[in-house]
Every structure is written in structure tokens, then in C-alpha cells.
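Bumping my old thread because nobody answered last time. Still need a sequence for this structure:
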């Protein structure tokens, strides 16, 4: 039995079956320990990826408004970003698991995504109209996701268990550095180098354009560094490493047509239920006349229901030898550790999105006492929020190197729980702060949680995933980041209006509570090695 297979539908993954075997006469061997600089090189490309994301997050709304978008239309335009990741990452992960060529397994996707993303970064600020900018956001986000998704699996492929925390911490470091520098780039170009920060109506300022040009170049150069200064193990070696780790591996069982038929029946039943609930939810939302973004929840359920029904029908009719059925079945059979971490991720990222969406409103109204968005006081508060966000990203970059030490002294899940609790106190402290300068102390706590969120769940997850499906499951794991984002964008406004008198500061309360829940849930996670 081979450990590296092409996409076929006549196999099914059954978990927790301890099977030891050797293919192609390979003997089990330990995965080599890499040096600090080898881990640095394999993670360096994340600096470029974060440049792309940070420029997108900080400036795309500005570009939309410059091209004529109304403020109330911006959220629906932004839906492209999470939905693109939701679709692209599992697909790229699935194919990268089954790729091996002269560049390797993951590196072809690093390079292809970097080239496309760099081109998109050059084109985005030159979009001639709003529709073009919205379409370019889809292309840019899809391209960035093509590069980003395999990087998570890259750590699982290349590092032994005891170094994976360090590997993901290194990625957190580059994420923090990239976020700080890229977010500040238009400000730096304007105030340090005299680049114009204004432009005629309908034209994006030169400071933003130049930032995107530099970001595109940095993206490509950083990814090229990783492509040419790191290596990958061929599939046979990865299989031998799994044997040496004495893991409970995923075992490929030849599945009978009858088993596929029964599995198809199960998916038809579940798909019908999901489709019915999604249809009822859509009807209810249409009666309530809610915001457009809320319909994404119902739409997602409708799509999931149709996917399950399609897979079920294919299996019932004997057409199961295809990648689509394999993907749907693997989703059903995800490891228990991944299911446990899904809840941790949900509450962690719900808290983060509550902070990202409402911190500006909370700080300007609660601490600066300004509600007039045209006033100087409001804009001072909004600028200070930008400083605060830069601080927590900088703290995350530093703390990233301390996480492996904390994990070694306690455990990975205990280290993550501690960081989440610290982040909860950081968010909750915003409710009682009166002096805006003290917000920097709150950002220290949030930065510690952010560093851990970017690394520790992935370090735990990789221990439960087989090398042959590392990329796919890392892509699926992105669902549990996107779903809370969509839910946060959909219900937070309703909750604040209905129960908190529309005061944005209470979003920090909800975020803090969500962090505490995530910290409790991580303690029940099975960290397998």
C-alpha cells in the first residue's frame, strides 16, 4: 500500500487504525531536526504574504470609497475575501497533497500564487471603476490564498513534532512584522518621503499606489526566497517519517461498493436536512428585512446541502471514483483533534473580528468622547486605533519566539489557553480605560493572544494529520476562521442594537467572553504528540 496516492474515489479514510507498513522497501526513519536558519528560510515567504493581506485590509475600503462606493455597501464588497479563502484553500490543499514535480510539493503553489498576487497588487490601485476593483479583490485574495494555504502544510511536512511549535511561531513573527510595516507604508511614504496622500476625485493617491507596488515586489521576492532556499521531502520519505513517529496513521482501506452506497445514503439524508434548514432560514431572513450580509449564512447552508446531495447521489449511482467524492468524504472523516480545535478557533476568531470591526467606534466614542466622524477629535481617536493595532502586531512578532519556551514548560494546549486568557483580559480592560494611552497596555495582552492564535492551533493540529492529506485538512481548517467572521459580521450589529443600546464598547465585552470560552475549550483538545 502506498502512502502517497493519486486522487481516487475507491478509497476511504478511516481514522485511529494503528497500522505499520513500509512501502517501496522504505524503513522508518526520524524526520531530521532543522536549524534556526532553515526554519527561517522556509517561513520567510510568509512576510510577503502578510504584506499582501495587510495592504488589502488597510487600503481596499479606501479604494472602494475613492471609486464611489457608499459606506453601507462596503461590507458586502468585502465578503469576497473570506468566501474566496473558504473555497480556494481546501482545493489548493487537496491538489498540493497530490503534487510532486521538480519544484516539489508545496513550492509550485507558493510560486504560482505569488506571481498572480503580485500582479493583482500592481493592478488593484489602478482599477478604473468600482466593479473592476471589486473583481480585482476576488482575484487578489484568491491568489494570496493559493500561496498561503500550502505554507501551513509546509511546516507539518518538514518539521518533526518537537519543532512544529517553533515553525508556526516563526510564521507568526513574519506575520507581525509584515502587518506592522505594510499597514504603516502609506503613512511612511507620505510623512517621510513626501509622496502625495491626496488625488483628484475618483483617483487613488500616489501613496497608496506606491505602497501596493512595493508590496507586490516584496511579496514575490519573499516567496522566491523560500522557494529557492528551502527543500521538500518526497512522498516516500514523508511516509517513512510517519512510521518512525509511531503515529496513528490514516489507513487506506479498499471500500466496497456497498459501503459507498450506504455512505451516499447518509449524505443524502444530511444534505436534505441542511438544505431544508438553509431554505427556511433564507425565507425567515427575507421576511425580517435584515442586512444583505446575513443572507450569507443561509446561502452557505444551501451550498453545503447541495454538495452533500451531489456527493450522495454520485456514490449511490456507483460514480465514486473522483476527487469530488473524496473531498466530501474526507471532510466527514476529519480527525477528532481537528473537530475539537474547530470550536477553539470559532470562539477565538469571533473575538478577533468583534475587535477589528468595532474598536474604532468603541475607542472614539467611549474614550475620546467623539461621535462626529468629521471632527478632529474623532480622527485623532481613529488614528490612535491604528497605532494600537500596529502595537499588538509588533508584540505578537516578539512573543512568537517565547511561545515554544512556554509550550515546553507546560504543554501546547496549556500555553494556548494561557495566552487566550491574557487576551481576554486585554479586551475587557478597554471597557474601564479612560486614558487613551493605557490602551497600549491592553494591546500587549491582545498581541500575546494573537501570536498564539497564529501558531499554537496549527502546531497541535499537524500532530493529528497524515502527510498525505496535510494540505487538504489545513485548507478545511480555514473554515473555522471564515465562519466566525461571517457570523460576527452578521449578528454583532443586531446584538449591540438589541441588548447593548448600540454602544460599540460592548463588542469588547463579547470578545473577551469569547476568548475565555476558547481558553476553556482548548483544554479538552487531544494534543496527540
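Sorry it took so long. Here it is:
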Amino acid at each position: 500500500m502506498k502512502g502517497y496516492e493519486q486522487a481516487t474515489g475507491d478509497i476511504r479514510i478511516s481514522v485511529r487504525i494503528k497500522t505499520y507498513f513500509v512501502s517501496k522497501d522504505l524503513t522508518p526513519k526520524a524526520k531530521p531536526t532543522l536549524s534556526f536558519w532553515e526554519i527561517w528560510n522556509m517561513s520567510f515567504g510568509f512576510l510577503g504574504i502578510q504584506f499582501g493581506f495587510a495592504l488589502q485590509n488597510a487600503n481596499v475600503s479606501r479604494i472602494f470609497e475613492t471609486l464611489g462606493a457608499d459606506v453601507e455597501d462596503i461590507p458586502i464588497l468585502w465578503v469576497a475575501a473570506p468566501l474566496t479563502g473558504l473555497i480556494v484553500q481546501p482545493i489548493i490543499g487537496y491538489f498540493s497533497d497530490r503534487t510532486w514535480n521538480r519544484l516539489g510539493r508545496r513550492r509550485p503553489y507558493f510560486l504560482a500564487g505569488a506571481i498572480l498576487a503580485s500582479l493583482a497588487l500592481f493592478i488593484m490601485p489602478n482599477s478604473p471603476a468600482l466593479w473592476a476593483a471589486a473583481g480585482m479583490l476576488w482575484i487578489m485574495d484568491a491568489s494570496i490564498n493559493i500561496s498561503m494555504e500550502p505554507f501551513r502544510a509546509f511546516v507539518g511536512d518538514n518539521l518533526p513534532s518537537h519543532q512544529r511549535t517553533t515553525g508556526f511561531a516563526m510564521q507568526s513573527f513574519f506575520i507581525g512584522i509584515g502587518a506592522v510595516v505594510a499597514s504603516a507604508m502609506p503613512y511612511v511614504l507620505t510623512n517621510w518621503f513626501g509622496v502625495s496622500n491626496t488625488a483628484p476625485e475618483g483617483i487613488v493617491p500616489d501613496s497608496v499606489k506606491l505602497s501596493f507596488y512595493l508590496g507586490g515586489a516584496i511579496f514575490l521576492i519573499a516567496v522566491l526566497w523560500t522557494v529557492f532556499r528551502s527543500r521538500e521531502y518526497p512522498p516516500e520519505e514523508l511516509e517513512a517519517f510517519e512510521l518512525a513517529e509511531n503515529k496513528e496513521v490514516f489507513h487506506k482501506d479498499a471500500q466496497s461498493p456497498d459501503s459507498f452506497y450506504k455512505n451516499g445514503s447518509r449524505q443524502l439524508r444530511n444534505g436534505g436536512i441542511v438544505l431544508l434548514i438553509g431554505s427556511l432560514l433564507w425565507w425567515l431572513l427575507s421576511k425580517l428585512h435584515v442586512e444583505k450580509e446575513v443572507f450569507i449564512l443561509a446561502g452557505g447552508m444551501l451550498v453545503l446541502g447541495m454538495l452533500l446531495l451531489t456527493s450522495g447521489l454520485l456514490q449511490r449511482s456507483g460514480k465514486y471514483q473522483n476527487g469530488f467524492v473524496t473531498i466530501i468524504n474526507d471532510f466527514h472523516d476529519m480527525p477528532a483533534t481537528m473537530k475539537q480545535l474547530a470550536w477553539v478557533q470559532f470562539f477565538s476568531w469571533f473575538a478577533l473580528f468583534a475587535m477589528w470591526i468595532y474598536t474604532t467606534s468603541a475607542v472614539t466614542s467611549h474614550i475620546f468622547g467623539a461621535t462626529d466622524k468629521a471632527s478632529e477629535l474623532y480622527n485623532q481617536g481613529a488614528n490612535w486605533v491604528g497605532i494600537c493595532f500596529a502595537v499588538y502586531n509588533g508584540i505578537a512578532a516578539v512573543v512568537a519566539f517565547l511561545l515554544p519556551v512556554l509550550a515546553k514548560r507546560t504543554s501546547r494546549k496549556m500555553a494556548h489557553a494561557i495566552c487566550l486568557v491574557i487576551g481576554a483580559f486585554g479586551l475587557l480592560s478597554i471597557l474601564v480605560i479612560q486614558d487613551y494611552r493605557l490602551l497600549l497596555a491592553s494591546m500587549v495582552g491582545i498581541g500575546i493572544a494573537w501570536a498564539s492564535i497564529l501558531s499554537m492551533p496549527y502546531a497541535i493540529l499537524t500532530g493529528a494529520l497524515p502527510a498525505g492529506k496535510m494540505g487538504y485538512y489545513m485548507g478545511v481548517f480555514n473554515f473555522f476562521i471564515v465562519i466566525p467572521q461571517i457570523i460576527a459580521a452578521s449578528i454583532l450589529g443586531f446584538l449591540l442594537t438589541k441588548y447593548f443600546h448600540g454602544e460599540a464598547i460592548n463588542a469588547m465585552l463579547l470578545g473577551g467572553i469569547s476568548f475565555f470560552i476558547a481558553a476553556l475549550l482548548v483544554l479538552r483538545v487531544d494534543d496527540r504528540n
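Confidence is low (pLDDT under 50) at residues 1-23, 248-253. Let me know if any region looks off to you.
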